[in-house]
Every structure is written in C-alpha cells, then in structure tokens.
Specification:
By secondary structure, the chain is an alpha/beta fold. About 35% of the residues lie in helices and about 20% in strands. It has a six-stranded mixed beta sheet, sandwiched between helices. It has a three-stranded mixed beta sheet with strand order 7-8-9, with helices on one face. Strand 2 and strand 3 form a beta hairpin. Helix 6 packs antiparallel against helix 8. The longest helix is centred in the last third of the chain and has 18 residues.
Length: about 290
C-alpha cells in the first residue's frame, strides 16, 4: 500500500477544485469563475486497491490585498510543509500571465517533489498541447507534465498512475469509504457561499462570511440556521433584494444543492449581520478561516 499527501497549487480560477471534484467523483469543493472562491483548505481522500492519496485543495495563489488574502496565502505555505508531492496546476494559456509566473517562481523555491498539470487541455489543438508540454518540461522543475481535462476526464488515469509512483509506502490514514474529513455542516456553508458568489455582482460576495448557528440532522432531514456576515450596511439591501427576491433565489438554489449532496430534505434559514471591514481584521480572519 502506498499513501501520502498531495498539495494542489495554482493561481485563482485555474481549475484546482474542478480537478479534485472529478477525481473523487463528488462535488465537494465549490466552483465559480470568481477569484477567491476557495478560502479554506479541504482534504479530498482518494482510495483504491493500491493506494490512499490525500489531496489538499488550496486557495488560489495571489497577491494578498488584505488580512484575508494573507491568511489564505499562509494556508498554501503551511500545506506545503506536510506534502509528499506538490502539484502545480496551469491552464491552457499559451502565454503565462503575471500570476502564472509567480506560481512558477514558487515552484523554483519549492524543495518538495513536483509535477505540473496542464488543465483544460480539451480546448487545445494537438500542436498547441505539444508545445505547452515541451515548454514545462524545458523548465526542468517538474518530475513530469500531465495534460488533463476535468470536463472530458482526459488524462486522469495517467495522472493517478504518476502520483502513485511517487507516493511512499504507508498506511491507510482514513477509512476506505471516506472522501473528506470536512464536516457536512461546513460543506453546507460552502454551498451557500457559492450561491452568493454566483448571484451577486462585484465585490459584495467576497465580503461575505457564513457561520452556522444551528445545525440539526436526523435520518430524513437537516435544519440549518446560518448567520451571513456582510462588511457594509448598504450591502444588506442588495443581498436581500426587492421584496426578498435575491435572498430567496440564493436560499432556494443552495437548498437544491444541499439536498442533492445529502439526499435529505433541507430547511435553511438565514440571519444577516454586519461585521465592518472584517477582512482587514486578522483576529476575525483567523477565527473564521480555519
């Protein structure tokens, strides 16, 4: 049996969460086209007959603009200390952007074993893909280069074989049936936050944090009362919407996904509170982004 810990690193929106959702076969991590969708590190546990691989889904590597951004960056560095392998995720862009180059600078400093994934390879022509593979091989930073597509499933068998070959001999860290050690109530919070990111515009959803005040689960149903914290009082009317239309859309969309995830009826109530400029307060950030 081989087992170990694998860290996924990449800029925001490069597709780390989509890759891990595909690997596990369940949508555990929320996915949107917004930066900072992933705030917390979540473990994805992949187990088959020959190995158990624990993947860390990290926030996107960025230029921190506030205490929240700094704490999210620290999550990446801390997870690198525990990793048997770091996977750098790049997208299918033929030219690297500024943040891509910063990610590669991090790889140059990284002493762990490393491979690189080229995501969204299904959108590339054959010659373009070959050019990108050669480009990353010539950097002489990575053990190997793996093109994948979370949409089509292309390349995942080869990727898992490559990871398996790098993993050390080790025990089963978790029961074979487990796919994450994240509590269901935390996943429910993330599903709700995803809906705020999808339905609200501009900066407002990035200033939202969700804390579960009450969570009651029985055999057939789950009852949840969440507190939604906003940074500004004038955001409250936008979040609620005219006659409550916006908040009801968000609640209904979240309930639908929660019920699909748990196969249980979900009752969801929301209280809205203001915590001014919480993203600039390191004490609040550390208590909320664990």
């Amino acid at each position: 049996m081989r087992s170990g810990f694998v860290n996924l690193i990449g800029r925001p929106n490069v597709g780390k969460s989509s890759i891990l959702n595909h690997l596990i076969g369940v949508k555990l991590s929320i996915v949107t086209d917004r930066p900072q969708t992933t705030r917390k590190s979540m473990k994805f546990i992949y187990t088959d007959e020959r190995s158990q691989i624990i993947f860390f889904d990290n926030p996107g590597f960025q230029d921190p603009k506030n205490k929240l951004g700094q704490e999210m960056q620290n999550i990446i560095y801390n997870n690198m200390k525990d990793a048997d392998l770091d996977i750098y995720v790049m997208d299918n862009s033929l030219e690297n952007g500024r943040l891509d180059n910063k990610v590669l600078d991090l790889a140059r400093e990284d002493k762990n074993k490393k491979i690189v994934i080229i995501n969204k390879c299904d959108l590339l022509k054959e010659d373009e893909l070959e050019m990108l593979i050669q480009k990353y091989k010539e950097l002489d930073l990575f053990i190997d280069v793996y093109p994948v597509s979370a949409v089509t499933g292309y390349g995942f068998k080869e990727l898992l074989d490559g990871i398996y070959n790098i993993m050390p001999e080790g025990p089963l860290y978790y029961d074979e049936e487990m796919i994450t050690d994240t509590m269901t109530r935390e996943i429910m919070e993330e599903i709700l936050r995803e809906k705020f990111l999808i339905f609200l515009n501009e900066e407002i959803p990035h200033g939202i944090n969700i804390e579960t005040e009450e969570y009651i689960e029985d055999e057939d149903s789950i009852s949840i009362r969440d507190i939604v914290y906003l940074e500004r009082e004038n955001h409250k009317a936008i979040v609620i919407g005219k006659n409550g239309t916006m908040i009801n859309r968000i609640i209904n969309a979240a309930k639908k996904d929660m019920q699909e995830f748990t196969n249980k009826k979900v009752r969801l109530k929301i209280d809205i509170k203001i915590r001014k400029n919480w993203r600039k307060n390191i004490g609040i950030v550390k208590s909320w982004i664990k």
